[in-house]
Amino acid sequence: MPALTPxxxxxxxxxxxxxxxxRHEDAELVCEGIHCWVGAVRTNRAxxxxxxxxxxxxxxxxxxxxxxxxxxxxxxxxLRRPAILGEVLAALATGRPFTVEDDRLVTLEP
Length: 110
Description:
CATH architecture: Orthogonal Bundle
Oligomer: single chain
């Protein structure tokens, strides 16, 4: 079963805490080239790829600008219930649309 790596958990936690405290600039994950940061803390590009693979972030980049990502509902749910990662992968494998409600994956009708 997939699990949050320590790096994934750290990035999601930092983003969630910054958002809860109203520090919105620090709540974004920013990448330029191979360098990525949450606030002033640098993270590995591989961590960012994993977060995107599991759909834990949403792209909030401006056209032609640097890459910017924000925490989404799936990312918040993964902090509270990491088992959702396996459910996300299973849903992606079926190709069926889904949403997250109350930290649970809900398959939508096409």
